[in-house]
Amino acid sequence: MSYEIAEIVAGLNQPQKMISPKYFYDKRGSKLFEQICELPEYYLTRTEIGIMEASMNDIARAIGRHVSVIEYGIGSGLKTRILLENLDDPVAFIPIDISPEHLAESCQNLAKRFPQIEVLPVAADFTRPVPIPVPGRTAARKLVYFPGSTIGNFETEAAIELLRVMYQEAGPGGALLIGADLKKDRQIIENAYNDSEGITAEFNLNVLRRLNREFGSDFDLNAFSHSATYNESSGRIEMYLISQCAQEVTLGEHRFSFIEGEKIITEYCHKFSLEGFRELASVAGFQHVNTWLDANRWFSIQLYER
Ligand code: AVJ
Question: What distance in angstroms lies between residue 128's CA and the mean position of ligand 1's atoms?
Fold first, then answer.
């Protein structure tokens, strides 16, 4: 627990204040994220599921039989269900998720739906070293599954680092199935992070509520507002909480002062070109196998091998 406080304090002490997006996902944050996935403006989930539905036979064939699936972050479990339904006799499913309640709930549903697949949940922060359990049945190969374009949360160096961890985890002959959101018209991207119902704003502000509850800070949620803009030159959405006035916030013995208009970065969501993403994966050691797209070329599902 204490590395988290140290990390949060260090982030708020930077000249450009920041809070890691992994802190969004407490129980309420995970629920809000599921609501985001259903929003008309949030094209990512819907588009990725559409690609899966259209191309799943092809994807499953390329992955092969008797794999053990290691998923980084579990989401609502819908994509997982589609994948597991279509793979040829997978031996195990090993999800790693930072929200224990959310993980338990998703795994219960999946275990019921797939009694023949061994489910081995790991409640952990996957940006740190995690021991991965070994399934009872020997798998033909390991498949690391990382949907949703969560890789877009990481800056280049950290993304490569995480892909290297996945490369190690996949082991000899292993594979990576990964979702990557693509560059497109800025209005479409910005609308996805500025929905008309204000759910994304709630999701963003919820991180402060969580810090108050779990770490004892005293953020005034009414004194910060949500902002998300597409930075064309860095190819990413930058999500902020903006201080509406000059104010001080305390967390234990730490004090943070804000000037009016000062921003806390809470999330980057990088958008990729197909070439750019392949380059990233290849720096981590992966060989590209295939890419599946929707008709608009808004989102990609990509398969890599070691
Ligand atoms: C979970 C990182 C894929 O980047 O779109 C959605 C999170 N943040 N709305 C994204 C998110 C605000 C999401 N990822």
Answer: 20
The pLDDT confidence band at residue 1, using thresholds 50, 70 and 90, is low
Nearest CA-CA partner of 224 in 210, 208, 200, 203: 208
Q: Which tokens hold the place of 125?
A: 């922060």
159 C-beta closer than 6 A to ligand 1? no
> What's the pTM?
0.96
d(CA 102, CA 106): 6
**Helices (runs of H) and strands (runs of E) counted in the chain:** 9, 13
User: What is the reported pLDDT for 239?
Assistant: 98
Report the nearest-CA residue for atom 2 of ligand 1. Answer: 150
Token pair listed for 275: 């070439």
Per residue in 177-235, pLDDT (tens digit) is 999 999 999 999 999 999 999 999 999 999 999 999 999 999 999 999 999 999 999 99
Q: How far apart are CA 268 and CA 102, in angstroms?
A: 23
Please state, in angstroms and rounded to a whole number, the distance separating the CA atoms of residues 111 and 104.
10
- What's the average model confidence in pLDDT over 69-97? 95
3-state secondary structure of 246: coil
Element (H, E) at 295: none
Amino acid at 100: P
Whether 68 lines ligand 1, by a CB cut-off of 6 Å, is no
Using alpha carbons, select from 145, 124, 148 the residue that is nearest to residue 75.
148
Atom from ligand 1 closest to the CA of residue 267: 8
Q: At 33, which helix (H) or strand (E)?
A: helix 27-38
Taken in order 24, 183, 275, 18, the sign of the CA dihedral is negative
